[in-house]
Write a structure and sequence with these properties.
Layout: H1 6-20, H2 24-53, E1 61-69, E2 74-80, H3 82-101, H4 109-128, H5 132-143, H6 145-153, H7 158-184, H8 198-201, H9 208-223, H10 234-241, H11 244-254, H12 256-269, H13 271-298, H14 302-322, H15 326-357, E3 365-366, H16 368-371, H17 373-386, H18 393-407, H19 412-422, H20 424-440, E4 445-446, H21 457-475, H22 478-492
Antiparallel strand pairs: 1-2, 3-4
Helix pairs in contact: 1-2, 1-4, 2-3, 2-4, 3-4, 3-11, 3-15, 3-21, 4-5, 4-6, 4-11, 5-7, 6-7, 7-9, 7-10, 9-12, 9-13, 10-14, 11-15, 12-14, 13-14, 13-19, 13-20, 14-15, 15-17, 15-18, 15-21, 15-22, 17-20, 17-21, 18-19, 18-21
């Protein structure tokens, strides 16, 4: 069996094992073992990729092609490049950390972990797919479990939040399907057969009118899941109502599908459409960056603060992609990885604080460092990494984005927007330092709870799984940056 199909088979086996497991302990154990195996596979894939790339110059490696529906030329066509490998590794890390952070889940634990694994299966499928239709199917598999995870295991207005999220994302999927079909029916513009194969379509000269027409459909269809302004409103409500592990996977992994789809499909297959529409969508992305930062500063609920911060930081990814600059694109991919790790860390820490104090209101919290030193120390470090302090992954990502965006064509329009987006760093510093000062360093306030349990071994394991790569990327970023830059070459050439 090929190395990539295992990322579909192992989650399915894990799900089957969960179905037949009995009791909370066995559900935890099966989920943990399955997730550890997935992480091992992701690490093995990374080393195998480096080895294969040394002798293979194809755009995608480890490719496999099996016919699904011959009449429509739909194939199970898979392969990866450096960007896919990096995102697969991110997914494996966040999933395993989410399992550890959810260790205490006692309400329908089997069904909860099954839903988490189904979500991860869909995400893996998107990252390995070369066939557009197959990619879309896996995209929907990743989105659907969110309704159950929030609606059943969430808190607060969970039914409202789950329904709002589902309607917004399903609406975006309908728009995306129109765009994909538009690409498909124009994939024979050079006289060949209709195809869903991304690499084959990239060689076709799709008519300019079709590119201009369908680019907004594909871009919006993917970008909504990355909380593109003004379609972002589902995200804060969804995060606030979701259980901790679901927020981790939602922000850490699922929302990365938007930027990935924009890069892999919209930019690559419709380059003329990207050039035509970039000015419009880059304005929306810039607004999202600043709006998310200012919205976060006004919140008092820890989850809402992190949710709006995610809107801002994912807006950076879309902004960087729309600059059509190689350095900025490199920053966009690293930002996706960095944000995935850091936002999952924040949600994990928020869940740990809420589980002990039973509140997320920052006005009722203070002095946590004195009684929860491990959680407090990691929270401070995560906050500093989130605002882009050198030595952490956020600095590497944001420097690439800002430098690339500012130098693109020496264009005044891009430079003004870049300066506007850079200003969001100041706002981010305000709400991060405000949080640290209030809930960690301030007078002792624990919402009336005086005896707070320390972090457990499984919570520490989940936290360290996320923290170590953040520091690793910040201290030694060049191996990752080189891997991404080499994978960007065939994609950026199409839009320059």
């Amino acid at each position: 069996m090929d190395i990539l199909t295992l990322f579909i088979i192992v989650p399915i086996i894990t799900i089957i094992a969960l179905v037949f497991s009995k009791g909370l302990e066995r559900s935890r154990l099966v989920s943990m073992i399955g997730s550890i195996i997935q992480l091992g596979m992701a690490i093995n894939l990374m080393f195998a990729y480096f080895k294969e790339r040394a002798v293979n110059t194809d755009i995608m490696v480890f490719t496999k092609d099996l016919v699904w529906f011959k009449s429509f030329n739909i194939h199970y066509n898979i392969g990866v490049d450096g960007i896919s490998v990096a995102l697969i590794l991110l997914t494996a890390i966040v999933v395993l950390a989410g399992v550890f952070i959810s260790w205490k889940t006692s309400e329908l634990p089997k069904e909860f972990f099954i839903s988490l694994i189904v979500l991860s299966l869909g995400v893996y499928g998107v990252f390995i797919s070369i066939d557009l239709f197959t990619l879309f199917v896996f995209f929907e598999i990743a989105v659907i479990p969110m309704y159950l995870l929030i609606g059943i295991w969430g808190s607060g207005p969970r039914e409202y939040s789950a329904m709002k999220l589902t309607l917004m994302l399903m609406g975006a999927s309908a728009v995306l399907l129109v765009g994909i079909l538009g690409i498909y029916f124009n994939s024979n513009a050079d006289g060949g057969a209709l195809t869903f194969n991304i690499l084959d379509i990239a060689q076709v000269h799709i008519p300019l009118a079709a590119q201009k027409l369908f680019f907004p459909f594909v871009f919006i269809g993917f970008a909504v899941i990355s909380a593109l302004f003004p379609f972002h409103t589902w995200s804060p409500d969804g995060h606030a109502s979701a259980p901790t592990a679901v927020s981790m996977l939602h922000a850490g992994v699922l929302m990365k599908l938007g930027g990935y789809g924009v890069f892999r499909v919209a930019m690559f297959l419709l380059p003329a459409g990207a050039l035509h529409w970039s000015w419009f969508f880059i304005i929306l992305a810039a607004i999202g960056v600043v709006y998310g930062a200012f919205s976060a500063i006004r919140q008092t609920d820890l989850k809402y603060i992190n949710a709006y911060a995610s809107v801002s930081h994912l807006g950076l990814v879309l902004f960087a992609l729309l600059t059509l600059n190689k350095i900025a694109w490199n920053g966009a991919i690293i930002q996706s990885l960095s944000h995935g790790l850091l936002t999952a860390l924040f949600f994990a820490l928020i869940g740990m604080i809420y589980g002990r104090t039973h509140t997320r209101d920052i006005t009722k919290l203070g002095g946590m460092m004195k009684i929860l030193p491990f959680i407090g120390a990691i929270y401070v470090i995560t906050g500093l990494a989130y605002l882009g302090l050198p030595g952490f992954s956020g600095f590497v990502a944001e420097m690439n984005i800002f430098v690339g965006a500012f130098q693109q064509n020496a264009d005044t329009f891009n430079r003004v927007l870049t300066i506007l987006v850079v200003s969001s760093i100041v706002v981010t510093s305000v709400y991060i330092l405000r949080l640290v000062g209030k809930i960690m360093m301030g007078p002792l306030e624990t919402n009336g709870v005086t005896d707070l349990p320390r972090a457990t071994w499984y919570e520490k394991t989940g936290i360290l799984l996320l923290m170590l790569p953040v520091i690793g990327i910040g201290v030694a970023p060049f191996w990752l940056s080189d891997m991404i830059m080499k994978s960007l070459e065939p994609f950026i050439q199409g839009v320059l």
